[in-house]
UniProtKB/TrEMBL annotation, chain A:
<feature type="transmembrane region" description="Helical">
    <location>
        <begin position="12"/>
        <end position="31"/>
    </location>
</feature>
<keyword id="KW-0812">Transmembrane</keyword>
<feature type="region of interest" description="Disordered">
    <location>
        <begin position="197"/>
        <end position="220"/>
    </location>
</feature>
<protein>
    <submittedName>
        <fullName>Uncharacterized membrane protein</fullName>
    </submittedName>
</protein>
<dbReference type="Pfam" id="PF03364">
    <property type="entry name" value="Polyketide_cyc"/>
</dbReference>
<feature type="domain" description="Coenzyme Q-binding protein COQ10 START">
    <location>
        <begin position="66"/>
        <end position="177"/>
    </location>
</feature>
<feature type="compositionally biased region" description="Basic and acidic residues">
    <location>
        <begin position="211"/>
        <end position="220"/>
    </location>
</feature>
<dbReference type="InterPro" id="IPR023393">
    <property type="entry name" value="START-like_dom_sf"/>
</dbReference>
<keyword id="KW-1133">Transmembrane helix</keyword>
From TrEMBL, chain B:
<keyword id="KW-0862">Zinc</keyword>
<dbReference type="Pfam" id="PF08240">
    <property type="entry name" value="ADH_N"/>
</dbReference>
<protein>
    <submittedName>
        <fullName>Threonine dehydrogenase</fullName>
    </submittedName>
</protein>
<dbReference type="GO" id="GO:0008270">
    <property type="term" value="F:zinc ion binding"/>
</dbReference>
<dbReference type="InterPro" id="IPR013149">
    <property type="entry name" value="ADH-like_C"/>
</dbReference>
<comment type="similarity">
    <text>Belongs to the zinc-containing alcohol dehydrogenase family.</text>
</comment>
<dbReference type="GO" id="GO:0016491">
    <property type="term" value="F:oxidoreductase activity"/>
</dbReference>
<dbReference type="InterPro" id="IPR036291">
    <property type="entry name" value="NAD(P)-bd_dom_sf"/>
</dbReference>
<feature type="domain" description="Alcohol dehydrogenase-like C-terminal">
    <location>
        <begin position="197"/>
        <end position="265"/>
    </location>
</feature>
């Protein structure tokens, strides 16, 4: 569990951000290189992010079928719309030149700031990004939109690499309170699907006899 | 408002809870006028289905009057509607193929992970059921929020009473799909295990779909009497060896199609079921699939097996070799309710189904705890219970005198 260190009021995130920066420096280019290498070594046609055992992967990848044309999905994937379907993203502030500052909810009521730069855009197909040095969490990633066969819509692939604050222990803690980036990314991608297909983000909000819940708010 | 809540094994209580609110544009709010207790509610009552939380509002067979609508709802205030138990968006890959109970959007992102791990893919969503299927508040309450209200609810003409149409929400389409899944051909003999409400609608459906004979299996006299009334020949499994009887009734080949309307909590004092009961008591197994085992062994070679009965996980002593060697075709699944409601409503109006005579009791919503106990313990007398939020506490009306075979 990320905690505070003797009297230091700053979250551990900032303390370990330095560690993370090294990874960001290597960043997406290295992942692309290792991806190509793995592809050469493997005989499977599976997506590259599935080729390592789940525990030892450096990156997270998730694909979802969304029943909409890829042009519509590409057009909707803008930082301004992220708070609509990214549950832990509080605000995204565009800083110009493809850079944006994200305020994201973190475990224990904290907030972390990500500063990400879009590094590549292929219109209608893919968007890649990488974090800037001042980002609390070093991260890089790519979202890709491919036509699904038979007029089924679009396969949306989200690929993410990040340096977990507090390393393995921090990751475990974040997982326990469901603010771990992989859990968030998977759920956010599914919310994007709901929003694109149905026009709204699905919620189970409703009454229960549990005093802690509100009838207009989602619950687990 | 008042609502029936699940509190634990064999414990339900009627509590005062907050009213539901419109949350999304496609939502509507219903004032419930009739709400039934389903056989699958007993799986929750017995805590056979994992993923319930104390305080959950129960109920997935209900109808009522629209009292509020979101901006994108197509319903109008004042309309009377029956609501399918399956919550379905209408726009995903599955809904477009009318596989409504497999909807990939209705189970929220926060609740879908558990069933994704358990089942291999996340389950769809339903009202008033386990959090595996979305954790939605159910309709055994005065009011309920209906998501995607432009897709599911069936508007009911004024001349039809609640009792005529209430079962469009679940058990009528479930019986209909069970019979469709048996791919019935002219001349077929169809054997149906379980004469609960789903079994009784499966009997009617199989005959409407052209079965030459339907043979129904149970042990409760009133339920067997209803099966006979709807046109089935009946077997009381306490009196006869079911497989021997089925063989002798079909010239030794067995029924062409077998339908398991029992599910995970088979009754019966047979060796396999006693072992299952003991294992289930100690949480070593979730299933007691005695009826399904028997159906596989009874079915004719190259026959069809339809499984509307609810199962939750892994079963053992499953006759897989028998299934394969006999070349059976299996169809199963939760009901794609929205696919059938239009034609079934028309058939009700044409008088093709008897939707009323299986209802044994009307009772006040306030008496739900007692009704759950009776539904669980007195299955011979209580064949179907409809709760009415409008009725005064303590009013239980026996709707009709049940015959016994």
């Amino acid at each position: 569990m990320p905690g505070e260190q003797r009297g230091d009021k700053r979250p551990l995130y900032t303390a370990v951000a330095g560690l993370g920066l090294a990874a960001a420096g290597i960043g997406f280019a290295a992942l692309q290189r290792s991806k190509r290498k793995k592809r050469a070594a493997s005989i499977s046609d599976a997506p590259h992010w599935t080729l390592e055992k789940q525990g030892s992967r450096a990156l997270f990848g998730k694909s979802l079928l969304i029943n909409r044309p890829k042009e519509a999905l590409f057009a909707a994937w803008t930082v301004e719309r992220f708070p609509e379907f990214m549950e832990n993203v509080v605000t995204v502030e565009p800083l110009g030149e493809g850079v944006s500052r994200w305020t994201v909810k973190a475990p224990a009521g904290r907030k972390v700031t990500l500063v990400n730069r879009i590094t590549r855009v292929i219109a209608g197909e893919a968007i890649s990004w990488q974090s800037e040095p001042e980002s609390d969490i070093a991260n890089s990633g790519e979202v890709r939109f491919d036509d699904a066969p038979g007029g089924r819509g679009t396969y949306v692939h989200l690929i993410l690499a990040y340096e977990p604050p507090g390393r393995a222990l921090g990751r475990l803690g974040a997982k326990l309170v469901q603010r771990e980036p992989e859990v968030q990314a998977r759920r956010d991608l599914h919310r994007f699907k709901q929003l694109m297909e149905t026009g709204e983000v699905t919620t189970n909000a409703g009454p229960s006899a549990r005093a802690s819940e509100h009838p207009a708010k989602s619950h687990i | 408002m008042r609502a029936v809540t699940w509190q634990g094994r064999h414990k339900v209580s009627v509590e005062t809870v907050p009213d539901p609110e419109i949350v999304n544009p496609r939502d509507a709010i219903l004032r419930v006028t009739s709400t039934a207790i389903c056989g699958s509610d007993l799986h929750l009552y017995d805590r056979y289905i994992p993923g319930m939380r104390a305080g959950d509002v129960l109920g997935h067979e209900f109808m009522g009057e629209v009292v509020d609508t979101g901006a994108a709802s197509t319903l109008e205030i004042g309309q009377r509607v029956v609501v399918p138990f399956t919550i379905s968006c209408g726009q995903c890959f599955f809904c477009e193929r009318q596989l409504y109970s497999a909807c990939d959007n209705a189970n929220p992102s926060e609740t879908r992970d558990a069933s994704d791990v358990m089942m291999g893919h996340a389950m769809g969503a339903a009202f008033g059921y386990a959090h595996l299927t979305g954790g939605y508040a159910g309709g055994q309450a005065e009011y309920v929020r209906i998501p995607y209200s432009d897709v599911g609810p069936v508007v009911i003409p004024e001349d039809l009473a609640d009792d005529d149409v209430l079962f469009l929400s679940d058990i009528l389409p479930t019986g209909w799909q069970a019979a469709l899944n048996a791919d019935i051909e002219p001349g077929d003999t169809v054997a149906i295990w379980g004469c609960g409400p789903v079994g009784l609608f499966t009997i009617q459906s199989a005959l409407l779909l052209g079965a030459a004979r339907v043979i129904a299996i149970d042990h409760f006299p009133t339920r067997l009497a209803l099966a006979r009334k709807y046109g089935a020949e009946v077997l009381d499994y306490r009196e006869v060896d079911v497989r021997e009887a089925l063989d002798e009734m079909t010239g030794g080949i067995g029924p062409d199609a077998c339908i398991d309307c029992v599910g995970m909590e088979s009754h019966g004092f047979t060796l396999d079921n006693v072992v299952d009961q003991v294992k289930a008591k100690f949480y070593l197994a979730t299933e007691r699939p005695h009826a399904l085992r028997q159906a596989i062994l009874a079915c004719r070679k190259g026959g069809r097996l339809s499984i509307p009965g609810v199962y939750g996980g892994f079963a053992d002593k499953f006759p897989l070799g028998q299934l394969m060697e006999k070349g059976l075709t299996v169809k199963s699944g939760q009901t794609h309710v929205q696919r059938y409601t239009g034609e079934l409503l028309r058939m009700i109006r044409e008088g093709k189904f008897d939707t009323v005579s299986l209802i044994s009791h009307h009772a006040s919503l306030e008496d739900a705890a007692d009704m759950y106990r009776r539904w669980h313990d007195e299955q011979n007398l209580y064949t179907k219970i409809v709760l009415k939020p409008g009725m005064a506490r303590g009013t239980v009306r026996a709707v009709q005198q049940m015959e016994q075979v």
